[in-house]
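Q: My labmate handed me this sequence with no annotations at all. I'd like to see what the chain might look like in three dimensions before we decide whether it's worth expressing. Could you predict it?
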Amino acid sequence: MQPPPGRFDEVYPEQAEVESNRLVDRIGRAIGGRISRRWRTRASRVRAITAQVAPFDAGMRALDREGLREQARELRRQLRREGLTDPLIAQAFALVRETSGQVIGMRHFDTQLRGGWAMLQGMVAEMETGEGKTLTATLPACTAALAGKPVHVITVNDYLVERDHALMAPVYSALGITSAAVTSEMSHADRQQAYAADVVYCTNKTVVFDYLRDRIVLGSQSDSLHLKLEKIYGGDEAKTRVSQLLLRGLSYAIVDEADSVLADEAGTPLIISAEVPASGEAAMSAEAIGVAGQLVEGVHFRVLGKERTVEMLEAGHLHVIDLTRASGGAWAITLRREELVSQALTALHLFKRDEQYLVRDGKIQVIDEFTGRVMADRSWGQGLHQMIEVKEGLETTARREPLARISYQRFFRRYQLLSGMSGTASEVAGELGSIYGLAVVKIPTHKPSRRQTRPDRVFGNDDAKWDHVLERLLHHHGRGAPVLVGTRSVVSSELLSRKLDARGVVHQVLNARQDSAEAEAVARAGQPGAIMIATNMAGRGTDIKIAPGMDALGGLHVIVTERHEAGRIDRQIAGRCARQGDPGTVEVILSLEDALLVPYARGPGAWLVRRLARAIPGRREAIEAWWIRRVQKRTEAIQSRHRKTLLKSDRQMGDILSFSGRAE
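A: Here is what I predict for the chain of 664 residues:
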């Protein structure tokens, strides 16, 4: 099924949400969607684009740059008249490939043609790390732009936005396609000008917040026909309203690192809020932390690590009533009292410094647990952020009330055509299909992979694990090979850094504290004997190029020191080595005290694993490694359920906000 041609008269195009709660409809959609996705992703259909492009290659090679630009003008007219037909797509891909080869010296491989075709069909192209996804995206982006569809190329941070746009802008310019990059520091006027381009590079967070700003401007009357009539007949006031909009609608999106954006980050709603003046808020948060600090785990409350929640016990409820009997005010209201204590216990026991957040310049800065990066302008809601500020002895900021909110799930479902690319999408293919209707297509590598992965090593405690990590790291460093050590948290990265400092070993640390130095650190990581210790922020979008002569030493050596909550993150870190046919080695060194296992340490699974390991000592590490992978899969399933629950609650909250007169 070909994507529909864009409508050029739409003021703010987007896909309407149509959702039926009837069981029979949900079952029908699930079955029909699965059959459709399997049919669309069959290998023969994906391979066909290579043969379709080949006949146009000779003609394109004969053209100079002016000839290519003239060909683009003619193709633009045809695409706008006939739509995205197979012959025109093939001709456009041949044009983009030749233009890229002439302008930036990078000619698309046949495998990249397949990835580009999959994205233009509204699918997620799973391409191994190092296979050139940034270049691949120019194929569908240019084709859609020539067809008149505004294109958003969405990635995970401003650094990648600016880098990717700078690399590919000459290709767009050579074809007469306008392009721009939108970053978080830009003014409203600059953003408007940038979004007017044919192809816009931006982060997922930037485009969602700009969309919410547009929703606040538009209010409830946001359909394209209404806006068009206002623009023509509505007078200056209506024209001013339309002129305030940032986006040109949601026409076509290409989402880089699609599994991270569409799955991992989908668990967090995005909210535009305003400060709410509340006298006594700081004192109430401080009192709540004080009360929670007098409660005893196991007696008054339980920490449910798997679900990341705190459950109050009956004794706890009674003790809190005794502790707050003289306080009055909000403490006399049962629901408010329990909410305050629950948030305080959550702040004390579930949110840890240098894991979920940093303290920088006297402020709490949230760490994205999936990317390892600081999200400086993000805060937790419902008073939790203020509780953590009190816990850390910082000045308490004002609480904020939502003006508009939306989840990534609801936002991306509003694109008329949605696609993506990632190195690790297979694991969440079912979720991407059920929520977004996206099929995942696995694209073969251009060259055979030379990555070697060693069996997991599992130690009984953290001390033994870190000793072995240090031993292996120094061994590879001693023979001159570059080494990347992947850690899960800032705490772990700095622990290993101190061990190396004690031995006088030169190394780099890349974590949420040093995120501004990311590009420079990555550029040095492939040099002979280089050591880089990094949280999972080094796992996506970074390209570690190994120095000449490192092939003989086996290329980059990656040491993974802890399993993450999503196995895809482990694969991303492993994918830093052995790119584009280079050699590389991955070894995984774990501990039974790793954070992932803590919620399961006292369960029946852990007891069974210990018994089996003692009974079959020769297979101890294999049994423990198997159990760790099972825990990881169970954690992934819990998170997936949480994201689906968020989608339902987000719809309900959108209805509430709309009823109250606010956006969404």
